[in-house]
Amino acid sequence: MNTTNYFSYPAKQKVCILYTLKCSATCSHCIVKSSPYRSEKFELGVAKEIVYQSSINGKKVLILSGGEVFLFYNEILELTRHASQCGLDVWIETNGYWASSIEVTSHRIKKLVDAGLSALFVSYDYFHMPYVPFERISNIMDCACSVNLKCEIMFTPSTNPDEDNRICDTLLARDYPFYKDELLPYGGAREMFQDESPKSFQDISCCCSMTTTFLPDGEVYACCNISSDNSRLRSTPVYLGNAESCAVSELLTRERENKFLDVISQEDTLQKLLERLSEKEILSKNADKLYTICDYCVHIASDATCLQTLAEMK
Ligand code: SF4
Ligand code: SF4
Fold it and tell me: Does residue 144's CB lie within 6 angstroms of at least one atom of ligand 2?
């Protein structure tokens, strides 16, 4: 079932806190290269202030992601309660490693639901399989269902289509809702894209997952596609600044007033821009490296001529 609640909020209404880069797993495709050896994480008080400022600056949903946020369960529980009291929907992403029995799973999910959790997204696919037994995913899906909590499996296709099909068949047989995400050529997955064909601009759809993302080092991007190397993104309009040196409300104002983000997140304006850039032959010089909307986005955002063309659009 290729369906998701993940896009049920428009661009600019979602805020994500990458609470930690530490993880119980070391998936080979991991976009941020999380692992048990990473130690970066938020201070709870800093995260709470971001939540509060987000709630009074137009955000409607908080996504808690990582890394693996259940490694800091009590802090996540408190943050969920705080965000819910601030009027935000709260979504959590997890790999499910913690769901060791029905009792443990049920206890943890019930406390989160009581604190205001509105949806749980669980990663499971060929990359995650070595780290989390499928019964733990089942425990989560079954316990979430028993308390009417929205819960979806996030499935990323691998370079092993036979295994992918087997996993999808299992999910379908259990009637578990799942969403087939896209494998992106960033972080650990970059080298898996060497033989991939680039995509022409006519086959590109607008950015539908735009999310303000706060990182443990204070960096803030109007983008959910944060990877282990954000150096290119950092020099584009997608980068909003650093919360250690700039007030969160100011960063969110920069995002609201950002024309680049408006264009990239709407189908009609994005296609209009891409057509203009194609007519001027500005896209063709890097066409062999453009696989996804994110590649187009970063390419356009890093090129002064592209940005000038965008600025001239009505
Ligand atoms: S993909 Fe998810 S579960 Fe795997 S290492 Fe990265 S953060 Fe952890
Ligand atoms: S890189 Fe651009 S297109 Fe990709 S998620 Fe970020 S803002 Fe959207």
Answer: no
Instruction: Give the architecture (CATH level 2) of 14-196.
Output: Alpha-Beta Barrel (3.20)
What DSSP string describes the chain?
A: -B--STTSS-TTSEEEEE-BSB-S---TT-TT--BTT---B--HHHHHHHHHHHHTTT--EEEEESS-GGGGHHHHHHHHHHHHHTT-EEEEEE--TT--SHHHHHHHHHHHHHHTEEEEEEE-STTTTTTS-HHHHHHHHHHHHHTT-EEEEEE---S-HHHHHHHHHHHHHHT--EEE----SSGGGGGGGTTPPP--GGGPPP-----EEE-TTSEEEE-S---S--HHHHTSTTEEEETTTS-HHHHHHHHHT-HHHHHHTSHHHHHHHHHHHHHTT-SGGGGGG--SHHHHHHHHHT-HHHHHHHHH--
pLDDT, tens digit (0-9, with 9 covering 90-100), for 112-170: 999 999 999 999 999 999 999 999 999 999 999 999 999 999 999 998 999 999 999 99
Q: What is the pLDDT of residue 181?
A: 82
pLDDT of residue 296: 86
Q: Where are the domains of the chain?
A: 14-196
For ligand 1, whether the C-beta of 26 sits within 6 Å is: yes
Of 30, 32, 29, 11, the residue nearest 21 (C-alpha): 32
Beta carbon of 122 within 6 Å of any ligand 1 atom: no
Ligand nearest to the CA of residue 25, numbered in listed order: 1
Q: In this structure, are residues 43 and 216 in contact, taking their beta carbons and an 8 Å threshold?
A: no
The pLDDT, as a whole number, for residue 286 is: 63
Report field, pTM of the whole predicted structure over 0.85: yes
Confidence category of residue 97, pLDDT binned at 50, 70, 90: very high
For a substitution probing ligand 1, which of 26, 34, 184 has the most ligand atoms within 8 Å of its CB?
34
